[in-house]
Inverse folding.
């Protein structure tokens, strides 16, 4: 078993921010052994733009970059691609599939997964949007549905194929529904001869009384109006009763659709649930003010798995947490004294929230400023480009967006065979509750 002084689990926004902050500071510290970053993937994913990949606006590599490439200028950091299966906090071990790694300090940045609120059978019928595979699967599902509709002779089947249901009216659901609206009304309409994609039915289902519940109410109303202008049927105060193979059951009706997409909820990574740490009702870890785990001053949790008052589960918060832990630990390591009795508490600096709603439209809430339209869209574009890792990614994404804005031509409308196999539009009716593929 190899021993690493600092082990970071997860290369999301929080884990990567912690690793880079450590990398900047470790060269000025006494030797601290190895700093190890472990992730099951070899790339960092810019999740806020997953909906662009799902709707053919960008390709996967545009929003992903190899972890080793990001950290190559930090010789103190070792990257390991491996799957974490558990933790032994008492023995200070990270358990991997075929081995284990010891640590002196542990930073958990495990991220979140799609939550179906305990209705695990629903996963078979509604695709979430948390991973690159999810985005590719949604893209294939949508494009295949239009291809099949072009050849369908049964009007009922064609109607199902041209109906898209997005469940969840938070930022991801709003962005996804808006992008699909533009895809059908301004891009695909030129590509088919026997169907009219502009007549596709797009529904956004939200259980609450308004969209974007985390935003000021005014912005939720603006988002609703903008979506309706794109042809999206917004259903508020409509809770999903059941999901089936090609059907969404609400209290008032059952909607047939070959394209059911789920953005209604997230949950902490399942590995967090196995930790002997108090959790809130959603399963997020109740950490101490310094972000350490209760009873384990050398183990920290950051990002979406953490429950802190007035700290949202968004990328800027995770990055701030990562930098906080790096600053805290490098100060302790440089002093050589160990954990003080009163460590500095984490202080979240609110940078605001944004969501896009189609072409050149967005809503933004930054400090006391609340605005929308092209100005909010440009602010959203600039901030997201700043957060994108790697110069190449920024240039490609900016070029793609400018090209799409001017021409309405999306260049990532390619269906890969691996995506086609995973697509629910090709599923045959089944009474089995097991997940196919």
């Amino acid at each position: 078993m190899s021993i690493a002084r600092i082990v970071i689990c997860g290369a999301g926004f929080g884990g990567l921010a912690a690793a880079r902050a450590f990398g900047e500071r470790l060269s000025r510290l006494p030797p601290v052994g190895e700093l190890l970053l472990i992730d099951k993937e070899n790339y960092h994913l810019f999740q806020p733009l997953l909906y662009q990949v799902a709707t053919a606006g960008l390709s996967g590599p545009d929003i992903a970059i190899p972890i080793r490439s990001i950290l190559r200028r930090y010789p103190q950091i070792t990257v390991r691609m491996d799957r974490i299966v558990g933790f032994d906090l008492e023995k200070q071990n990270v358990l991997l599939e075929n081995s284990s790694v010891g640590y002196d300090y542990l930073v958990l940045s495990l991220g979140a997964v799609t939550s179906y609120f305990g209705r695990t059978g629903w996963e078979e019928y509604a695709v979430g949007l948390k991973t690159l595979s999810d985005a590719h699967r949604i893209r294939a599902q949508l494009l295949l549905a239009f291809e099949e509709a072009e050849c369908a002779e049964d009007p009922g089947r064609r109607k199902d194929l041209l109906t898209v249901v997005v469940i969840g009216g938070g930022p991801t659901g709003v962005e996804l529904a808006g992008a699909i609206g533009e895809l059908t009304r301004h891009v695909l309409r030129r590509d088919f001869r026997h169907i009219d994609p502009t007549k596709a039915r797009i529904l956004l289902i939200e259980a609450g009384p308004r969209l974007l519940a985390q935003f000021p109410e005014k912005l939720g109303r603006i988002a609703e109006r903008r979506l309706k202008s794109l042809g999206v049927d917004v259903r508020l105060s409509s809770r999903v009763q059941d999901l089936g193979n090609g059907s969404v059951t609400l209290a008032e009706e059952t909607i047939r659709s070959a394209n059911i997409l789920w953005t209604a909820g997230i949950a902490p990574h399942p590995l967090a649930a196995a930790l002997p740490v108090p959790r809130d009702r959603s399963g997020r870890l109740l950490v101490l003010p310094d972000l350490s785990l209760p009873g384990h001053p050398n183990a920290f949790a950051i990002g979406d798995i953490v429950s802190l008052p007035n700290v949202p589960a968004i990328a800027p918060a995770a990055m701030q947490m990562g930098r906080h832990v790096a600053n805290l630990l490098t100060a302790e390591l440089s002093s050589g004294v160990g954990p003080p009795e009163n460590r500095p508490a984490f202080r979240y600096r609110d940078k605001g929230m944004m969501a896009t709603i189609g072409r050149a439209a967005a809503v933004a809430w930054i400090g006391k400023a609340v605005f929308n339209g092209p100005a909010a869209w440009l602010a959203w574009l600039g901030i997201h480009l700043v957060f994108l890792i790697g110069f190449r990614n920024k240039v490609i994404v900016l070029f793609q967006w400018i090209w799409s804005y001017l021409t309405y031509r999306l260049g990532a409308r390619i269906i890969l065979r691996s995506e086609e196999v995973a697509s629910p539009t090709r599923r045959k009716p089944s009474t089995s509750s097991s997940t196919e593929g």
Summary: Residues 315-335 form the longest helix (21 residues). The two ends are 35 Å apart (CA to CA). Residues 43 and 212 are 30 Å apart (CA to CA). The mean pLDDT is 89.
